[in-house]
Amino acid sequence: MRKQMQRGEADRFISLFESSSGWGAVISGGAGIREVLLPFGWKTREELLASLAATFPWVGDARSDAASDEAAARLTRYFRGEAVDFMDLPLDLSPFTSFQAAVYRVVAAIPYGKVMTYREVAVAVGKAGAARGIGGAMARNPVPVLIPCHRVVGSSGSMTGYSAPGGITSKLWLLRLEGVHLTPRGRIERT
């Protein structure tokens, strides 16, 4: 779990959601959604709250807001297998560089059940030689699934790192949930 939320902790909100994989959380603030914790590390609500409290002491006093509630509701539907659109949710990208924000906008637009390669994302942001920079931005993505970094793969269709709990196993799980065709070795079958 990343400890990102330090500035402006007075305007912090949290909503929890449950899936068949476990419990997750959405953390937001005045400027929008700041962080999503995917439900791959906590089997119970209590485990998640204890983990959150260890990183964010304010969690016990936190309440939800419209943005965190809406994101949590959509994530619940997403983890049930629905093709959910997250594009209109307010995201707080203020801590990131203009390059990272541009990458996040491109990745946020990748449709459900589709993938792009790091190179394709680099070309889309106008930096064709910046595939490694795309990888760095993906590793810092504080709102996985809302910005679907799991939909970004290697040029050969191979899976590369994934910073959410469970790593590549979680990435493969999310792609399968969306109906992406994978080979038995976990590579993208591009048609």
Q: What's the short story on this structure?
A:
By secondary structure, the protein is of the alpha+beta class.
What would your notes on this structure say?
- It contains six helices and five strands.
- By secondary structure, it is an alpha+beta fold.
- It folds into two domains: 9-79, Double Stranded RNA Binding Domain; 98-177, Orthogonal Bundle (Arc Repressor Mutant, subunit A).
- The strands form two sheets. The chain has a three-stranded antiparallel beta sheet, with helices on one face.
- Helix 3 (98-108) packs across helix 5 (131-139) and helix 4 (118-124) crosses helix 5 (131-139).
- The longest helix is centred in the middle third of the chain and has 14 residues, at 66-79.
- The termini are far apart.
- Residues 1-8 have low confidence and may be disordered.
